[in-house]
Amino acid sequence: MRRMTARPANAHQARLLRLLRDGGPNSRAQLGDQVDLSRSKLAVEIDRLLETGLVVADGLAASRGGRRSHNIRLAPNLRFLGVDIGATSVDVAVTNAELEVLGHLNQPMDVREGPVAVFEQVLAMAAKLKVSGLAEGFDGAGIGVPGPVRYPEGVPVAPPIMPGWDGFPVREALSQELGCPVMVDNDVNLMAMGEQHAGVARSVGDFLCVKIGTGIGCGIVVGGEVYRGTTGSAGDIGHIQVEADGRACACGNKGCLEAHFSGAALARDAEEAARTGQSPELTARLEAAGRLTAADVATAAAAGDSTALDLIREGGNRVGQVIAGLVSFFNPGLVVIGGGVTGLGHTLLASVRTQVYRKSLPLATGNLPIVLGELGPTAGVIGAARLISDHLFSPA
Amino acid sequence: MRRMTARPANAHQARLLRLLRDGGPNSRAQLGDQVDLSRSKLAVEIDRLLETGLVVADGLAASRGGRRSHNIRLAPNLRFLGVDIGATSVDVAVTNAELEVLGHLNQPMDVREGPVAVFEQVLAMAAKLKVSGLAEGFDGAGIGVPGPVRYPEGVPVAPPIMPGWDGFPVREALSQELGCPVMVDNDVNLMAMGEQHAGVARSVGDFLCVKIGTGIGCGIVVGGEVYRGTTGSAGDIGHIQVEADGRACACGNKGCLEAHFSGAALARDAEEAARTGQSPELTARLEAAGRLTAADVATAAAAGDSTALDLIREGGNRVGQVIAGLVSFFNPGLVVIGGGVTGLGHTLLASVRTQVYRKSLPLATGNLPIVLGELGPTAGVIGAARLISDHLFSPA
DNA sequence: CAACTTTCTCCACACCCAGGACAAAGCCGG
DNA sequence: CCGGCTTTGTCCTGGGTGTGGAGAAAGTTG
């Protein structure tokens, strides 16, 4: 079938499309309440949108005490593809225009295999979602990669954990393959956008989203918009020094946050503890599986293993220390913590909170919630869908 | 005489006023090149601005190969008052509409004397500038205070070093006294705006401006706009921890940046060094003056005193360590260092640079200039003038 | 079933603004 | 000094945009 070709012709139409995306189906009258346009003008713009096929009529709305209004919704056949490439796995999801996830696949995969192999996998997963009847084609795709991206062009730049991706034209290539518009961003930024759209960060203008996975990154949202920095590397907090003469890090420095706490560091510490016999729980798991991951630490902690709990607490203190500094500097309205280690849950959260509330000034922490992300692995793909929808729902 | 009452009626007029403010007198044709409006429309808007008296005709421009164009400039009698209240002194300046400083006064003064006493002083200084013939009245005033401000209302909130100012309606009160519009902001933000307007940060969209005076603060500029945070305390980096179990700070914590390096800390360290006889140079100065300031350390260092140099280097390392973290996080296009300690000059700058370039990732530091502010004490007052002019040169 | 409310459409009018025609002013080469 | 050429400024027309009112359509409430 033919996919979406139209784009909003002006800012009003773009505004309306975003309202429908974020608020779901809506009556014409309700839309009118939100946009501050005359009824005549509003009718004209909606009619034009109906003509383009981007929105469709959808029956009558409930009465608000008088004549019933006609409902309007985004075209139900619109489909976005959200791709979240992590260090060790890939998530691919299909959403409708309201960014509801209709289907979601996850597959282990090492980014270091390079863009070609990864793309093959992604395309196979997208095809699988297609044949399962969820989509007949894609109107746009968003994709997140675990490293800095030169944003407008959609090209990774000097990504530390993605050898072979440097300068690879991700946007261009994927757009070719899928035959639809594509936008590329850092995976952490997408997580932030996801939580902003459908998670804990709704209605917060300025917030930080700390993602602790294989590495550590931080999405920065200023005035509702993701801030990417001058060269696209903003939020790269994994290599902030937390210990004067600490552990050696892959980046060449010593004492980096990532070297002391992250999914990878936690796994190493756990294996170490298991080998030296500090924790029977972990030792047993190591013998069973041959190696340990952050998830093993989480289950051990849930079972009350004190070594595991200590590891988490110490890590939380480290991250909390850095976040405390960022809170003083950035004065956000919310801090979201997510990523693979969300399983560590409230033990982690508690020590982060302790550090932040103790080490930042009262004015900045006074009304500052520090919470876990509520979308888990879907945050990234929803954020990816939102990335491309923001792009498509803006005046051409 | 009657002061400016008119305000730009629309975004086009606001745009033109700002172009004239930032670019000085300009021909109609040159303005046309910059605004992308039809000649007819441009002529209409300029005529309206001429009617309001905000701009005036100013003779003929040089020919660009054809008919000579008419010059336009902002009304030469417009006057802004820039006020920069520091912890230990007050700066007051008058500027024209192009934000050129026409007169500048500086007076030692302790903010802790409270808003009433300080205002008396400020008004006296403003009156002095007035009678010297520089202004017949003020069309607007910007004022910076050394603490967090709830921005839209212009009210200090919980300022640590300004007891008695908490909740004082600075904007309202000063507006009453001066009879003109007033805007209030943090002094660090004003310094950033000053350097952006007339200093080293021209044409940089995202940058940080670290001000090291009695305390330490950081102005954050995102996309050309000052970022103030959720509660107006963004940039408050003085209490970021730099040493795990470091010096006790007035805020109640240990190891804060400000406790280890700032104008106040440096003076204490210098006095300590003088008393223990580590530096004959400093000892002599202490005996002569009874106490030491950062300026004494600067002159001692300039004279080659190794103790003074060590103090500066150590301080630079501390600040550099924090800035390195901020650079990783924020990925700015420029870092400006200013404030009272600018006198420490290149010794300080060198150690800051060393730390940042060593501890931040290459992608973020690759093309990152770290420079001293070039406006010195006028940065604050120019920033203050710009604050109010931004306000007045925006659509009503 | 009548009065009131809400929603939607239609239409007249004002305003905005681009772009062309044209006049004014200045440059340059002969 | 004169005639083309360029640049600048003004005037005018026509299309597009958006407001607000009138009134019809559709429902609700008592």
UniProtKB/TrEMBL annotation, chains A, B:
Keyword Glycoprotein annotated: no
Keywords: Kinase, Transferase
UniProt cross-references to InterPro entries, sorted A to Z: ATPase_NBD (IPR043129), ROK (IPR000600), ROK_cs (IPR049874), WH-like_DNA-bd_sf (IPR036388), WH_DNA-bd_sf (IPR036390)
Gene Ontology molecular function, alphabetical: kinase activity
Pfam families reported for this sequence: ROK
Alphabetized PROSITE patterns for the sequence: ROK (PS01125)
Organism domain of life: Bacteria
Family: Belongs to the ROK (NagC/XylR) family.
The name this protein goes by in its record: ROK family protein (Putative glucokinase)
Organism the protein comes from: Streptomyces wuyuanensis
Lineage: Bacteria, Bacillati, Actinomycetota, Actinomycetes, Kitasatosporales
